[in-house]
Amino acid sequence: MKVLYSSLVEKIKTKPKIDGFCDDLTMLGIEVDDIQSFKGDKVINFDLTPNRGDCFSVKGLIRDYCALKNITFSLKKTHNFKSTKVFAKKIKLSAKEACSAYSAISISNLSPKKTNNFPKKIKNSLKAAGIQSIHPLVDIVNFIMLETGQPMHVFDEDKIKGDLEVRLAKKNETLQILGDNDLELKDDCLVIADSKEPIAFAGISGGNYHSVKKSSKNFLIESAYFDPSAIKGKARRYGFQTDASQRFERGVDYNLHEKALAEAVNLIEEIYNGDFSKIETKKNSFFPKQKIIKISSEDINKKLGTSLKENLIISILKRLEISLLEKNNSLLSFKIPSHRFDLSIKEDLVEEVARIIGYDQLPESKSLTVNQNYEVSEYQFTDSIKLFMKNKGFNEVINYSFLDPKILENLSISKNSISLKNPLNKTIGTLRTSLLPSLVSNLEYNLKRGENFLKIFEIGKSFSLDNPQETLNFSGLLFDDEKFKNWNTNQKFDFFYLKGILEDFFSEYRVDKVSWKKTKNNLLHPYASADIFAGKNFIGSIGSINPIFLKNLDIKKPFYYFEIFLSAISSNHLTRLKASSVYPSSQRDFSFEVDNSITFEEIQNCVKHSSKAFLQDMKIFDLYEGANIKKGKKSIAFRLSWGSNKKTLSDAEINKEADLIVSDMKKKLNAVLR
Amino acid sequence: MDLDALKKSLEQDFLTISSKEELTALKVKYLGKKGQITKLSKAIKELPSKEKPAYGKAIGELRNLFEINFEKFQDNLEIKSIQNLLEKEKLDVSLPGSFQTQGKLHPLTNTTKRITDFFSAQGYLIEDGPEIESDYYNFDALNIPADHPARDMHDTFYLENGSLLRTHTSPVQIRSIEKRGAPLKIICPGKVYRSDADKTHTPMFHQIEGLVISENVNFGHLKSEIMTFINFFFGAETKVRFRPSYFPFTEPSAEVDIMDKSSRDWLEIMGCGLVHPNVIEMSGLDSKEFSGFAFGMGVERMAKLFYEIEDMRSLFSNDIKFLSQ
User: Fold this and answer.
1) pLDDT in tens, B6-26
2) Are residues A351 and A420 in the same domain?
3) Which terminus of chain A, N or C, has less C-beta within 10 A?
4) Same structural domain for residues A189 and A314?
5) What is the count of residue pairs from A and B with beta carbons less than 8 Å apart?
């Protein structure tokens, strides 16, 4: 809310400097966003919290400031005016709880007392506050709203047919407001209606047809008390807010509507000659009763960690117009002023006392012990994976969870994707179903900036309409355009490099029974990718993208990628450290020629099956096709280790194992020892 | 030849040789079958028995002298040959090492870690919750009923099915109390979403929220916890102020500002307060028995201050040159 500095400080005797004034208000919880110059004056822009409806006016702001400073402020007093006509309409309060008090006045035959005497102050205040000047009477009631906090509305009385009724909207009723849009009112919308139709969206906006125009001759000004619950959220439902709705939904002083209307009439009288009716007021039994909050000084001290004396508490609250009603032993009953809608429980009064004392003056207390059991969280698990990947030379990226649905469609992974109902724009309208598109966009971005080598990873959620809706994924991408060159290494950054990292990951986190199978993922290259299983659980995929999809991307060169579903794996902890054998183990190297179609897995299974006794380890160290090897064949060389923790194995024992392997390899896989 | 002359000639010989072959020749010369020491030791038989012990001892010493010199010369030869070899193994140590670069963690991860490590060491459990939330956990249970003006403070992304993307990490508070009861001390880092985008706002960002529920928790406990944290994160000389604010889930509520060392401006860094009794009740605890405090901060903002980042959006560009700093 924007307010002129001069209209604030004119209400107090000693004018504070603007900086100190704004600091004081900020420290009261009334945050000053910025200060701007305005025609030799200053406009202060306040960032009001939604609880402080009472500060939505010059009066409210200065009232809080004076409470802090323990000084007084003076407001213009209203005076009686001469009534020269009757208020002819009846007011009916049908929605009794939503509107329990309604005042109105009828005005006609207005003529300016002097030419060009419309007060500059009103124009300036409105302009500073960003309120458009519409019609002198509207400007006046808006000015009074800025001053007091009471929104009012001016009707063209001639347009109102019959009497006034405050009621809920009926089915299929509409109202044209602001622009040319007809609002389709719902039956929880409070309206002001004449005998024919709604003429205003109560507490929010008047209807176009019944609002005052340049040509209007007879006027009816409304000033009412609307219950916040009847106004809350209604304007927002239709996608707008007004100065009135913002105030009413936070709560406007329920003792203000008549006073504010009188103030407006006094101001009109200063400028115009005219005929005024009396102020007609209708009230019912639902009119709010003064709230009482009971609290003891101990309650307050316990919450603040202070030892404030009861007298001090009472005097602090008194400055805020929260006065002591009665005292019953240590229990104090306080009367809550009609402008403070935010005060309803003890804690609210605790905050009031703290506000005036100043949060910075409150003591710090150290002695709080909380006994709870300690647990390692999933967060710490993912954190350690991040460190693992950092050590493997991968840079961490963090991407938005939403992206352009087109990207998902291009990759054929838009199935079951979740769309946002109200995206900021379409390019971030759908939640990602995989981390792949995010990493691919990072690759594209960095390629455009001249990078030709990329090792990145991300741990984040992917989303789908399936159950569960969100899963925590761990994904990495490897791209090496230049066939990475270093004078001292021949490291290839390929599928097996990435697989090696995952193997090390599974070993580090003791994920059991990991197997790598031909992928069923259509997105991946069918012959150069794998689906990964832990036991029977599908836990992720690794490989390169099917070249068919590369066409849809900006990247023309292959890259390698993996995605692991962290919630699908269970990592284990080492619970027992075994002593290593004191007997040495023995190694033998083998080299076989086999059919090209035989997989390493088949060979490994054959070896493990043949040599069940003492076999400890199998390491492949060479794989070769080409010269000296028949076409359609490959040479595979591996080293086996045997050992026992009971004895040193004899040559005879190892020879026996080796013979078994050679004969089984021949029999089962038609492999020839080279 | 007498013994003394032999000793002299032996010592002289060891000084003149330089190769392994000459060393072997010396061994033959002195200790071979016809060697000079061997010869003299044979002569012992012809001496009168009275002189035998002294002569024997002198011969023994002569043998020892030879052995010592022999081993010493052999060791020297070995050291020389190693030294010759070393030269052949000479490296150009100015060449760069093999490619071993470590990756880097994202600045937001580092910032989060710095914060959660601090609170973890103070005994806080680290908790997380779903990013797709219900109206209930994101708003109602936090004392923000439908139509509450505070919902204006949260520009919410809704999904077609009526769920929403959480606008803050506060729903984790409720879920944790429901799961663990009290007393409770948790820190909840995570992603949150608001339909807001400009230089200082990104539609997805990260928050860290802390919650302590116990008996007789007061505002002083909150202040001291926050002060300890700020002293750790921004340094002990940091100027801090607490000022009243409003959050529906805390009462009293406060905003915490620190003073920027160069501009002398106050910078808002976190919101906090004593947990509102309605929130305690709604999560299933008795607000007469339990009280608590909560605080929350934006990780991007903390990272921005810590790393002096100018544009918040650079945190999500994932530019490798930016990230690998």
Assistant:
1) 888 888 988 898 888 998 998
2) no
3) C
4) no
5) 246
